[in-house]
Amino acid sequence: IVVNPGQKDGGKVISVDKEADFVIVSLGQKAGVKKGGLLSIYRGKQYLGDVKVSRVLPEMSAADFVAPLKGNAVKKDDQVVIKE
Length: 84
Hints:
Strand order of the largest sheet: 1-2-5-4-3-6
């Protein structure tokens, strides 16, 4: 699996719900995101972990944290890329 955090089709974390353990990201159907797909989260070049898409809208998606990643490790504006 090759993921380039600098790729142009990346998005950002819009919000993090630490209690419900999910994240809202700025990538949606228009970017090729699909329900059940995986997204990788980065801060700069540091890989934080993955989230699994649970709901997709045209411009944004909701995704659940994949262990061991937890909500307290992710912040608004972290980078998001589609995991291929």
